[in-house]
Description:
The two termini are about 25 Å apart. The strands form three sheets. Strands 9, 10, 11, 12, 13, 14, 15, 16 and 17 form a nine-stranded mixed sheet that branches. Strands 1, 2, 5, 6, 7 and 8 form a six-stranded mixed sheet that branches. Strands 3-4 form a two-stranded antiparallel sheet. It has 25 helices and 17 strands. By secondary structure, it is α+β, with helices and mostly antiparallel strands. The longest helix is centred in the C-terminal third of the chain and has 55 residues, at about 580-635. About 50% of the residues are buried. Magnesium ion binds next to loops.
Amino acid sequence: MPNFRFTALEKTLSRQVVPYSMPKNKPSEYFGEMTFNMSAMKEYLTSEAYGKVRQAMEKGDKIDRKIADQIASSMKAWAMGKGATHYTHWFHPLTGSTAEKHDAFINPEGEGKAIENFRGNELVQQEPDASSFPHGGIRNTFEARGYTGWDPTSPAFILGNTLCIPTIFVSYTGEALDYKTPLLKSAQALDHAATAVCKMFDKNVEKVYATLGWEQEYFLVDSALYAARPDLMLTGRTLFGHSSAKDQQLSDHYFGTIPERVIEFMKEYETEAHRLGVPVKTRHNEVAPNQFEVAPVYEEVNLAVDHNQLIMHIIETVAKKHNFVALFHEKPYAHVNGSGKHNNYSLSTNTGSNLFAPGKTSKQNLRFITYMVNMVMAVHKYEDLLRASIASEGNDHRLGGHEAPPAIISVFIGSQMTRMFDKIENSETREGMSDDLLQEFNIDVPKIPEILLDNTDRNRTSPFAFTGNKFEFRAVGSNANCGKPMIALNTILADQLAQFKVDMDAEMSKGNSFEDALFVVIKQYIIESKRIRFEGNNYSDEWREEAEKRGITNVKTTPLTLNTYIEDRIVNLFERHNILNRRELEARRLIRLEKFTKKVQIESRIMGDMATNHIIPIAIRYQNTLIENVKGLKDILDLQTYGKVSKNELEMITRISNHISEIKKGVDQMINERKQANLIEDELQQAMAYDEKVRPLLEYIRRHVDKLELQVDDELWPLPKYRELLFVK
Ligand code: ADP
Ligand code: MG
């Protein structure tokens, strides 16, 4: 009987590179051609409508129905010109992926005729029958109305034959059921608070917006091998697999030559991304075999989050054309590095300044240090919220390994900034503070290229690191919607900046000058937030101990972490800035708890199935071969020789027996634990039962299966092995 593993493998190996021919024209000529961007709008809209959209984008003004009708009909004309036949509202429900429901432009007109139609109200608002999206109790199914509403700040785009319109998703009663709604609100709160602080330094600043540049990691696996791994297909990760003799120990994959088959795939998805206006720029191999990374030029945070969701979709679909499957799970393989998503974060002003970049004058540098200190202070106050914002079942496997930051949030600012902070902390007066700043950054010397400033020392182990002109939040999971951590970051920074303004006003009302007040407040913040700064190795055990002494949260798994969302402190924070209310936060927590439980439940079920009907039967089959062999030996050998020869084989048979019985025991116990957990009504208790009772059994069963993998005849083994999954190019 042909072995499935080899049949799959053979198919793969016979597969050729799927060549991709790049468009003839330059990327700058097709960049954004599939988006209804500003230049398309200018071409298709009346100047009145164009002006209204601009105002909506820049000032958040509302668009009235008459104008919406005009925009809709122009958008339709544009989209149909590009071959679109359908349209959809494209949104980010709390499942973590994106959702679409396609409607055709076509409308019957009577007398058997039809016309293509797309009206303003279809653009602006839709009511998808969305009762099956998670809502954490906010929306009972009998009043299942949820509304999607057009977000004019993120351009509509065409995927396949469908015009996709980025929208928010809210319930009938107005509560947010998505990530975009609170993200937009948090960006607005941040703009409000950060602009007010900017005005203390520069009256010309009218707007501050957060910028995000994500670095997205993922694995590629051959689709035939993938299809032979039910665990990968259903859970996104391998539940079994002994480590490959060689994996990442030689560090020969990182930044190595990209294989030809992968290059063709990359060329194609990059072109697709560019046509959709996603400014991807960097690609390289990552640490683990078959692991890669893509990064764009940064953008305003709302657009960047949409583009991250979009790139994941593009990569998934283009990978298929090249007979690959793209894995975004945080830990698809044990023993090799998992995948993260570094979120590079900064603040830009309408006057073109980056508020986390040192400037050229002492005034600019005072502003820079103000924003730096406030960011550190915000993390100090809300480290637990940042931790919760990146929690997920998948990320639990990655955080705290020797590949990713621990579940402890701290800030790295680099030696230059540390010197600066120390200097301020230890000064009695502000005299010299500004001159020191100038000298420290060495920017009074003309013509120093800006890039030198960006090359501050790096600490790759820090979860939240200052990297010269931005902060890099590195603990985000590869599969996450970036919206979650960005909502948290925007909100805590907005809150801190508002507090800063209050503290400054209080100091100045004592008769202090602006500079004096600034010195007092900043110095106090530097001292107060000191515990959150850590410049050493975040992967070390010493840091865990030290962090505990400093009272920094260290909750390793998701369920308990999510309690943070319903603490009064956090609820007040979100309510204070009108971003999320208590009901919405409670709903979000419940949704994530439920998701956690379901994910572990699915893993546990598929593991039980595979252990019972893939692994054990094969182990028994191989064991029978050994038994037959021993019997045969007995027939042909004299008793003494037989005694010697059979010893090894009998040992092998016993060992296999032991593994089989441990696997069986583990599966029975796991099913039992699951049954008990399923009876628990409280969502937290249930998730914790899955975490503490079911998960360890997954590990236990795996250990025995992986041992068997080393003993059973390779030809019989039912699953593609790590060396194939990781190395077949
Ligand atoms: P690394 O050295 O960490 O791999 P890069 O310097 O190449 O990273 O930049 C990584 C990401 O940081 C890119 O996506 C880039 O767009 C983003 N980035 C750079 N400047 C900013 C900024 N001001 N705001 C947000 N993201 C930024
Ligand atoms: Mg980086």
